[in-house]
Specification:
Length: about 260
């Protein structure tokens, strides 16, 4: 338990609460239980990753003999329980075996409808903008005055290293390039497409801008999203199956943690 609490403090910068400590202890007990169950099912015997790791441990300990002798030797030393890589691999193998859905298992139309309705983020396509700009470098003390006086014509203004035309940029990409104030002003403008407006201020200076194309955000149809929705259902179902399996094992091993209760 001391290792768990020290690891928690090191990673979060604070002491764990009693509830968090109880959760950490339960996670540790579950891991021991799952490793033991995987070993009982013999999942380590034919896995190349585990066998290579066992041989590496044997070589590190200076054990001699055939491959089988080395593996048998480290197994008698309960090496799987102390080797984090092996523990994680055993749990991974066990989870894969226990959550593999029956062949032909597929969500119903009602289940797909529910996932589409509840997962509003699925299928969203961000708005995109193509625009042209004339740039006035802020290193020039007269930049703001110049942008107010000069007419926006191609090749006028200062050189912008990334050019004067940008195509199919999202709000995120515009913000990354020009800064938040510039991107919000550009995407929220009421100026008609192809009309110049500004000046807009960016992290580089000032810009006269005209939007060449605007594609509003939209959500892909449920029919288009069918494979993605089915995958979401499958992953959620596997999570449920795994959680139920762990609960069943807890009853078998009676390792439910009652710390701080």
């Amino acid at each position: 338990m001391k290792v768990l609490t020290s690891d928690w403090t090191r990673s979060t910068g604070r002491a764990a609460t009693p509830i968090e400590l109880s959760h950490l202890a339960q996670v540790a007990l579950d891991e021991k239980m799952l490793v033991k169950e995987a070993m009982l099912q013999g999942l380590h015997k034919s896995d190349s990753v585990i066998n290579q790791r066992l041989l590496r441990d044997a070589d590190f300990l200076g054990l001699e003999g055939s491959v089988k002798d080395k593996i048998d030797a480290v197994m008698t030393m309960n090496m799987p329980a102390s080797d984090e890589v092996i523990r994680r691999r055993l749990i991974q193998l066990l989870q894969h075996n226990m959550t593999e859905l029956e062949e032909g298992s597929y969500p119903s139309a009602a289940q797909l409808d529910q996932i589409y309705a509840e997962s509003k983020e699925l299928g969203l396509v961000a708005a995109r903008f193509s625009f042209e700009h004339v740039f006035f470098d802020s290193d020039d003390g007269e930049a703001k005055a110049r942008v107010a006086l000069d007419a926006p014509v191609p090749n006028q203004g200062d050189v912008f290293l990334d050019g004067n035309y940008f195509s199919n940029m999202t709000l995120v990409s515009i913000t990354s390039k020009f800064g938040e104030d510039f991107s919000l002003a550009l995407v929220n403008t009421d100026t008609p497409v192809s009309d110049w407006f500004g000046p807009l201020e960016s992290v580089y200076g000032f810009h006269l801008v005209r939007i060449l194309q605007r594609h509003d955000s939209y959500r892909r149809s449920q029919a288009d999203m069918a494979p993605v929705l089915a995958d979401r259902w499958r992953r959620e179902r596997q999570t449920q199956v795994w959680a139920a399996y762990i609960d069943k094992l807890r009853d078998k091993y009676q390792v439910v943690c009652h710390a701080n209760t």
